[in-house]
Design a protein that fits this description.
Blueprint lengths: L10 E8 L2 H10 L6 E8 L17 E8 L10 H15 L8 E4 L3 E4 L2 E12 L5 E9 L24 H19 L5 H11 L6 E5 L4 E9 L5 E5 L2 E5 L3 E4 L2
Helix pairs in contact: 2-3, 2-4
Length: 250
């Protein structure tokens, strides 16, 4: 059986408004949806980011979620956020002028333009009552509006010379995500995915601070391993980190 994805494998439902496109996808999964479904909304009334943070979701930006059902064996899912980040990076880079500031991925999967955040990605999973596993990839991209973020400097595509609309940007995202999911190939393409991620990564070799739930750790960003864990070099000792907020230090 061929598990690789193509554009024809995906469906898209565009909504004028949703509480959260991620929640909408999970609701549909619970109701039996077969997956490979994109849901977009012009605005969200209850958008959320990582660690329960609010994601301000006014009109003018792209709010999109992709529902996948049983996308890979559970032990291979760790590399999926890397594939997603590369797919989103590809879409954003393709709609900016060549002279725009660098588009980079900040671990694990924020997209930066000129070291300012323009996109956040929230991946959520749920074991369904019928035994299937639903995984939702939520993507919010600042196209025309840049809500203030107390944690990081922010930007939007229009500030960098792109006149793209959210709908046009979604067409690029739809295509690039299908390509990267095919490369990822249910986790079998992890080496190719990590190689592509490293090519667009922000700050490898630089001093960083990683905020964990209970403490902050500083060191040099030594890159990622093949499972997507951040490798933090602390005086020559490598500490693998599975989740945290990264801050670059001057």
């Amino acid at each position: 059986m061929n598990s690789r994805k193509s554009l024809a494998d995906f469906r898209h439902d565009a909504l004028p408004e949703a509480a959260s496109t991620n929640s909408e996808c999970l609701d549909r999964a619970r109701a039996g949806d077969a997956g490979n479904l994109w849901v977009t909304a012009d605005r969200q009334t209850g958008g959320r980011g990582r660690r329960g943070r609010t994601w301000v979701s006014e009109r003018g930006n792209l709010y999109a979620s992709l529902l996948l059902i049983d996308p890979a064996p559970m032990d291979r899912l760790g590399s999926l956020p890397l594939a997603v980040a590369v797919g989103v990076h590809q879409a954003v880079r393709s709609v900016l002028p060549l002279a725009a500031e660098p588009v980079e991925v900040k671990w694990p999967n924020d997209i930066l333009i000129g070291r300012k955040k323009t996109c956040g990605i929230l991946i959520e999973g749920e074991a369904l009552a019928d035994g299937r596993y639903a995984l939702v990839i939520g993507i919010g991209i600042n196209v025309a509006v840049k809500p203030e973020n107390p944690l990081y400097p922010v930007t939007c595509l229009h500030e960098h010379g792109s006149a793209i609309s959210p709908e046009e940007l979604f067409a690029h995202l739809y295509a690039s995500m299908a390509e990267m999911l095919a490369v990822w190939d249910r986790g079998k393409g992890v080496r190719e995915v990590t190689a592509r991620w490293r090519e667009v990564a922000c700050g490898i070799g630089e001093k960083i601070t990683v905020n964990l739930p209970d403490r902050s750790i500083s060191g040099h960003f030594a890159g990622i391993d093949d499972n997507g864990l951040l490798m933090l070099d602390i005086g020559g000792k490598i500490l693998p980190i599975a989740a945290g907020d990264v801050f670059f230090r001057s």
